[in-house]
């Protein structure tokens, strides 16, 4: 009965104050959880607003707000909702307290290191996104600042991102879109801090303006695309899902097309007619049995070439594998490269046909890659048969190939040279397959020379880069 009475008293005490886990800023006596050193340290850090530009008193009176911590300051600067601020304040305190608790046994781990740990976890994807697009990060922490100032700036950026995330709703399923939003808002935040002048961006003065100006336009696009999907029964090429919309932010062109605040006249925000082909970014599912060849082309090519080589050897005069030592038989076996070129041409043609519906929104570099592969494939199905026919008129075979290994360039047939050139991309692909760690490094690299080299192999995507299995897993 005593415990029930205590619970009833506590319930009446907390009835007028809303909170989730930690009763921050609770009027009256402090609760035990708030007295924990990790909680108090996190709250003290968030409440440090010294040195920040002061808002105009008129705007504070108009909104009926008081600034108690960094999140209140950000709310007044960008028009975040009060409930979102309260939720993210508690979220931020708990994140910092959890990290402090896990590192409490480590000597020399001050709060600024705790803030840095949280900063690295939250902004890992944003920093990777900036490097991928070759744009400068908006998180500018000056090395000559004091530790307290660095901590305050880090917490400002963390708080800004959490407040964006808190009101993002379904836009949370588009992480690079959140990076784009944060990128522009962080620039505005830095300008206010550096100039020591509090001036909210135009249109962001009132509470809820961030939701109306930034999130609502994207949410309406998501809503329209959801209606076009007809409950998931419409074809994938007729509507855009979260991934398709998110891929718009994988290119530096998004800065020019979408602007800030949003350019609502951009194609991204407009619904096309039902008869028009809806642009997809990199993939449009086309249901056809031709995928059996396209998806497993290496297997079919290997089976076809192996069957052709075995057929040539079995129909030779000896009828055994030793017959390949004969110059005439060996020259006939080399014709498998002509078949390989023909099968590769079929594969490249299927690539174009089965991705054609995505060309409306593909990068021009991807379209150029498809076209170049197509014309290169045509060139090889012309070059290899012509050079092969010319090699038949002159001595050829195993002896002549051996001369090529000793760099006897004068006696080398043109066909053998053509084979070597034709096999260079395949040899590089095999090398990357046998060295997956090297391929992972090259795919994650943002060097333009490496990007150009990898561009020929596959389209450059932001996600799933450098996720190949290690060599031991491959040979299991």
UniProtKB/TrEMBL annotation:
The keyword Glycoprotein appears for this protein: no
Domain 1,3-beta-glucan synthase component FKS1-like: 152-263
One MF annotation (Gene Ontology) recorded for this entry: glucosyltransferase activity
InterPro entries (UniProt xref): FKS1-like_dom1
Keywords: Membrane, Transmembrane, Transmembrane helix
A family per Pfam: FKS1_dom1
GO cellular component: plasma membrane
Residue spans crossing the bilayer: 299-317, 329-350, 370-388, 414-435
Coiled coil: none
The protein, known as: 1,3-beta-glucan synthase component FKS1-like domain-containing protein
Annotated organism of origin: Aegilops tauschii subsp. strangulata (Goatgrass)
């Amino acid at each position: 009965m005593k415990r029930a009475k205590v619970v009833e008293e506590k319930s009446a005490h907390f009835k007028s104050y809303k909170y989730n886990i930690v009763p921050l800023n609770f009027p009256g006596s402090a609760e035990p959880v708030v007295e924990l050193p990790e909680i108090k340290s996190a709250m003290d850090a968030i409440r440090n607003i010294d040195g920040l530009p002061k808002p105009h008193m008129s705007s504070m009176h108009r909104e009926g707000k008081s600034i108690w911590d960094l999140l209140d300051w950000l709310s007044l600067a960008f028009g975040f909702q009060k409930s979102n601020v309260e939720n993210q304040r508690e979220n931020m305190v708990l994140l910092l307290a959890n990290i402090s608790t896990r590192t409490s046994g480590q000597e020399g781990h001050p709060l600024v290191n705790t803030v840095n740990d949280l900063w690295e976890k939250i902004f890992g994807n944003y920093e990777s996104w900036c490097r991928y697009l070759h744009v400068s990060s908006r998180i500018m922490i000056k090395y000559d600042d004091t530790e307290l100032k660095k901590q305050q700036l880090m917490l400002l950026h963390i708080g800004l991102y959490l407040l964006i995330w808190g009101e993002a709703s379904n836009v949370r399923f588009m992480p690079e879109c959140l990076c784009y939003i944060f990128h522009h808002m962080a620039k505005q935040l830095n300008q206010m801090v550096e100039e020591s002048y509090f001036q909210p961006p135009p249109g962001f003065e009132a509470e809820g303006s961030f939701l109306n100006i930034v999130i609502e336009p994207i949410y309406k696009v998501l809503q329209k695309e959801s209606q076009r999907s007809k409950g998931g029964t419409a074809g994938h090429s007729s509507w855009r899902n979260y991934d398709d919309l998110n891929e718009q932010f994988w290119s530096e062109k998004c800065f020019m097309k979408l602007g800030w605040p949003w350019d609502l006249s951009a194609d991204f925000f407009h619904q096309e007619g039902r008869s028009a082909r809806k642009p997809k970014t990199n993939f449009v599912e086309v249901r056809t049995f031709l995928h059996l060849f396209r998806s497993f082309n290496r297997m079919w090519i290997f089976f076809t070439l192996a069957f052709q080589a075995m057929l040539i050897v079995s129909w030779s005069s000896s009828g055994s594998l030793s017959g390949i030592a004969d110059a005439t038989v060996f020259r006939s076996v080399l014709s498998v490269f002509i078949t390989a070129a023909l099968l590769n041409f079929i594969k490249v043609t299927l690539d174009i046909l089965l991705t054609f519906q995505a060309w409306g929104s593909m990068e021009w570099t991807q379209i150029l890659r498809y076209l170049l592969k197509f014309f290169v494939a045509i060139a090889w199905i012309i070059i290899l048969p012509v050079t092969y026919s010319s090699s038949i008129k002159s001595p050829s075979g195993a002896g002549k190939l051996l001369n090529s290994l000793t760099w006897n360039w004068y006696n080398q047939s043109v066909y053998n040279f053509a084979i070597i050139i034709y096999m260079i991309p395949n040899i590089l692909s095999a090398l990357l397959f046998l060295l997956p760690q090297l391929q992972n490094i090259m795919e994650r690299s943002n060097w333009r020379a490496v990007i150009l080299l990898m561009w020929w192999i596959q389209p450059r995507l932001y996600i799933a880069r450098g996720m190949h299995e290690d060599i031991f897993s491959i040979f299991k």
